[in-house]
Specification:
Layout lengths: L8 E7 L4 E2 L4 E7 L5 E8 L5 E2 L11 E7 L1 H7 L9 E7 L4 E9 L2 E9 L21
Parallel strand pairs: 1-8
Antiparallel strand pairs: 1-2, 1-5, 3-4, 3-6, 6-7, 8-9
Subunit structure: Homotetramer. Dimer of dimers. In the homotetramer, subunits assemble around a central channel that can accommodate two ligand molecules. Interacts with RBP4.
InterPro entries: Thyroxine_BS (IPR023418), Transthyretin/HIU_hydrolase (IPR000895), Transthyretin/HIU_hydrolase_d (IPR023416), Transthyretin/HIU_hydrolase_sf (IPR036817)
Family: Belongs to the transthyretin family.
Length: 139
Amino acid sequence: GSGEPKCPLMVKVLDVVQGIPAVNVGVKVFKKAADENWEPFASGKTSEFGELHGLTTDEKLVEGIYKVELDTKSYWKSLGFSPFHEYAEVVTAESGHRHYTIMALLSPCTYSTTALISGPKECGAPASVDLQDEGQDFV
């Protein structure tokens, strides 16, 4: 291996009311224990890009059931909204060393989540895609 840390779990949150990344959204990750209780696993806040990297490593994200909880109530209250949900959550089973990107679209009364699942990736922001017009006409 390269010796660089792996980042198997990344969270990205978008504010669909303003059409911008949701900044400073609290994120908590829990792992389901053998006794069926949720144990704290990791936490952090989204960046200016609405992203949270470095929540865990390949070595720590072992097989099991995990819950990602987004503190949507605090986010919307800080913007002057009265949100319907206390939080948004995603519960998923980890069964192999893969990279998970959990994405959430938020509004004060609804949320939608999706996940991208791929092989392990390095921590850090995803590579940008440079879309250039190569002389093609678009209709």
